[in-house]
Specification:
Distance between the termini: 46 Å
Largest sheet: 9 strands, mixed
Number of helices: 14
Helix content: 25-40%
Bound molecules: zinc ion
Oligomer: single chain
Number of strands: 20
Shape: globular
Number of domains: 3
Length: 470
Amino acid sequence: MRLGRAAAAALLSLACARAPETATRIEPTACDARVRVASERPLLLDVDVACSGQEIAAFRAAEAASVQHLSRLPAGVTRHGPRFVLAAPSRQARLSYRVNLDALASSAQSFDIALRSGSTLVAPVSSWLVHPDPLATDVPVRVRVETPPGFSFETGLTRSDRAYTLEAHEIPVGTYALFGRFESRTLDVDDSRLRVAFADGRLDAGKDELAGWIEASARAVGDFWRKFPVPHVLVTVIPVPGRDGVLFGKVLPESAPGVVLLVGEHTGRARLYQDWILVHELFHLGVPSFSGEGKWFDEGLATYFEPIIRARAGWRTEESVWAEFRRAMPLGLEAVSKKGLERAEDFGEVYWGGAIVVMLADVEIRRRTGGARGLEDGLRAVLAAGGHASEVWPLDRTLSLSDESCGVPALEPLARAHARSASRVDLDALWRELGVEEGRLNASAPLAEVRRAILRGGPHSTSAKLGRLR
Ligand SMILES: [Zn+2]
């Protein structure tokens, strides 16, 4: 999506450069969206989108499944699939419509489109807000939402004044929103503000326990990044009746980050702290997004560092982390050795193949710097340069900046060898050097100190709790 925006920007600047001097100046476009809750159950939204500036001939529903649940279109507007063509192109274009989110939730039953949970409905922006078509670059959209008394609205979108803001090209991938009657809380972590919204439903552990776990996880991730990596995020907890455990998690980072977690009704405290999903999703917030490349790197980093972060927090042992790596990394071996990670597809290949390359880079940096630096120092340099999850970066720029700041060429050569092409990795030899043996860690292995530094986090780490693990 961001790539499309960059390409469109390049085209626009080219067009401007060639325009004759007498050409009419093209006004920038801006849109205002008014969203009114017309009915709570079924949840009906009356939406009015008005854009001024450049001439607009049509609007488009980004979520194709929502099209059949849009009604009350103005006279003269014709539908062409997900496109709504206006009676005439206009510099003051407007489209009003009603969207039935309960009907959409009944057919979709997915939080990526629409999901009802008791008196709460969760739906990303793309399911209820249309955008001008074609998508122009840098078109700001202000969204105002009017709700009945006692009815709440919550979203990860950036709020300024009394409106939420995003850009039109972000609507198709816009973050989550909640409508209805639900409880939300604010957690201050480092300099960041986390909103936690609990969709309606039973949770045996209670909301205080869940909120405490989310805050502790955010602090553990913040310790890794030196502070929580983004200024604000909405974490939506959706209880799942009759189930036990954290069942699924996903981050939608574009526009502003939002995390959705499906948590089983019967999940107890111990299960929460044993689970990987939340720390994995929160870790992602500190890494840039990539377009059409680098999934192995994004997922490999989260897969490798999530257990390390939880060990540093005192929630699991050093031995268990290495035992998991030893057990699971062979799932990615074929992808790094024979296929190349950019061509990898399934979960094991992408996540654990990526984790192999990331671990090789970390070991190389620790080895070459005598444990003084690790891959995490390179990643922090990328984040300090603005590379967080709501920004799309080229993979090459990310790898080279990390390598440069560590002073060790690690990620770039490894990506050439195992992502863009493939070459053999001898994991068994690496485990021997690190002293990762079946059922135990060997303290006198040649790279035992590197292995310890990886878990401890190097000389700058504040992970005082790791001492408790031994
Ligand atoms: Zn992930």
